[in-house]
Write a structure and sequence with these properties.
- By secondary structure, the protein is α/β, with parallel strands linked by helices.
- It has 13 helices and 19 strands.
- The strands form 4 sheets. It has a 7-stranded mixed sheet with strand order 5-4-13-14-15-12-16.
- Strand 17 and strand 18 form a beta hairpin.
- Helix 1 packs parallel to helix 5.
- The longest helix has 26 residues.
- The C terminus is likely disordered.
Length: 412
């Protein structure tokens, strides 16, 4: 195949982002602020997120500050209150203070619906930047002398940078690192619901049982966000997931029975949890880089999957002209956090009663000793700051949103 020369220096550089999730859209906004012309290719027919809510820690909120979105998201946060850990009987193991979190890490921990964040990011992109129902295949990752190339149903796109933001089963990752074993099953599955539960008030909490956890959080709009996780074989969905939740959690403390009573079977989303147990050798090859789950999928036990995708996007934009520097900045940090998430999953999902007893006692002791000790596990995570040096150039006009296109023939 004849290769197209790199975009002339007289034209703004181009970027193609494969995947329109949180990481991909954040990268698109950040790259535009660096003066790049950006196209986002999303295989789904719309950008409506598959999922429910997302918890944003101070690290990702500071990353969003770089693209002028941090304060807007803080203001839109559905929940900024206190919470804690409980046992299935309802006993509090630990209390977490929102004020203590903000004081320790320089900002709040906020909860909002994923759709709110997706909408806010999309609003910062010109019309036509995002193409839905757009399957994309990386044809060539590019090199110092030639652009990367992506094939779509409408032809091929040549770009100075391709961003693989296509999730845990990333086709871009497979093209870059075909010998990598890919994701493995984490040993547990998750359920999520966002529903109204009239007349129920409660403090935000996560409850740890034997091989099972449950979380319930009030949202600002009056709805409730609840999630559950349990040890289970992969790929065995129940005929009625609400009934499955009732079987597993129906005798746990309030408001869990009330949430289950208000839920319909169609309200419940179930997903097996996979992660990348073996780190990638790098997060780039040639002119192509990976962000988010495509690079470092991790269990949700630290609530950092989306947060790290946002960090990736901001750091990638900062190093867009030097992808080796991007890999060097991101791979050690995300590998450490992913391994910590695996360790936490082994502890809070344990089915061993002796380990449970030690775990619960340790959590209670740490909590009584002071909130700072309980929050210490997030040191080095929530206190992260983005690169400070700015090379931001004026954004290209809306008419320049798409990349140079060669009209050749042819989740998670």
């Amino acid at each position: 195949m004849e290769r197209t020369p790199v975009t002339p220096a007289t034209l703004p550089p181009t970027a193609v982002v494969v995947g329109g999730g949180i990481g991909g859209l954040t990268a698109a906004v950040a790259l535009r602020r660096q003066g790049m012309r950006v196209t986002v290719l999303e295989r789904a027919p719309s950008l409506e997120p598959v999922g429910a809510a997302i918890s944003l820690a101070p690290n990702s909120l500071r990353a969003l500050d770089v693209i002028g979105l941090g304060d807007e998201i803080r203001a839109l946060a559905a929940w900024q209150g206190d919470g804690g850990l409980r046992t299935p009987s309802g006993r509090w193991l630990a209390r977490a203070s929102a004020a203590a979190t903000a004081e320790r890490f320089g900002g709040p921990l906020v909860l909002l619906h994923r759709a709110t964040l997706i909408d806010a990011l999309t609003a910062r992109l010109p019309e036509g930047t995002v193409r839905t129902s757009a399957e994309a295949t990386l044809v060539d990752p590019g090199d110092d002398d030639h652009p990367a190339r992506v094939r779509t149903a409408e032809g091929e796109l040549a770009a100075d940078l391709v961003v693989g933001a296509d999730g845990i089963h990333s086709a871009v990752r497979r093209a870059l690192f075909p010998d990598h074993p890919g994701p493995v099953y984490s040993g547990f599955t998750t359920w999520r619901v966002v529903i109204p539960v009239p007349g129920v008030t409660f403090a935000s909490h996560e409850t740890w049982g034997r091989g099972r956890i449950w979380g319930t959080h009030p949202l600002k709009d009056g709805r409730v966000y609840a999630y559950a996780a349990a040890l289970a074989p992969a790929g065995r969905p129940a005929d009625d997931e609400r009934a499955e939740l009732l079987r597993r959690y129906g005798d746990w403390h309030e408001p869990i029975p009330a949430v289950l009573a208000a839920a319909r079977p169609e309200d419940v989303l179930r997903h097996d949890v996979h992660h990348l147990a073996e780190p990638l050798p790098a997060y780039h090859r040639g002119r192509t880089a990976l962000v988010g789950d495509a690079a470092h999928a991790m269990p949700p036990t630290l609530g950092q999957g989306g947060n790290q995708a946002i960090e990736d996007a901001i750091v990638l934009a900062h190093h867009h002209a030097d992808l080796a520097a991007y890999s060097a900045a991101r791979l050690p940090r995300t590998t450490r956090i992913a391994r910590q998430a695996v360790r936490v999953a082994r502890i809070n999902m344990t089915a061993n009663r002796a380990v449970m007893a030690v775990r619960d006692t340790a959590v209670a002791v740490l909590s009584k000793a002071g909130p700072a000790l309980f929050l210490k596990s997030f040191d080095g995570i929530a206190d992260w700051h983005p690169p400070t040096e700015s090379h931001t150039r004026p954004e290209p006009g809306a008419d320049d949103a798409v990349c140079s296109e060669q009209p050749t023939a042819g989740q998670d």
